[in-house]
Design brief:
alpha/beta, seven-stranded mixed β-sheet, 166 residues, Rossmann fold, 30% helix
Amino acid sequence: MPAALDGLELGGEVLEVGPGFGPATEALAPRAERLTALELDSSLAGDLRARLADEVEVVDGSGTAMPFADQSFDAVVCFTMLHHVPSTEEQDRLFAETHRVLRPGGVFAGTDSLGRGMGFALLHVGDDRVLIDPDRLESRLAGVGFDGADIGIEKDFFTFRAHCHP
């Protein structure tokens, strides 16, 4: 998470998509005036809600059909979850929904795995694993309206930031 957010001002209203069991959520909570976490798995959402109820609003729902009004957030973030979205078409719907809920000038930032190594493969046996090609991510984000995408490659993951045109 730090690599994706280093030097980035998130703004007041922040949405985290796909927090899972919430390690990034805990680190994000002090950085945002108001943090909302959108989680598809109702069990994980319930656990997160019980643990962080005073700091985070946890909403059950999908990143491909977000239950939020247009232009609700200053920033949307997601960490190591995009490869869990079951198809490139659904990933693109998530990108489009992210763009829809961002305010003009807002930022979409995060990380995802490059899927390297046997450990990654073993960790995802029987799980959705649709890797994103970082070389194509900028054009995919531009296809739903983002501009100014910045993609960085690390050892086992990539970072990204894209802006919603003001």
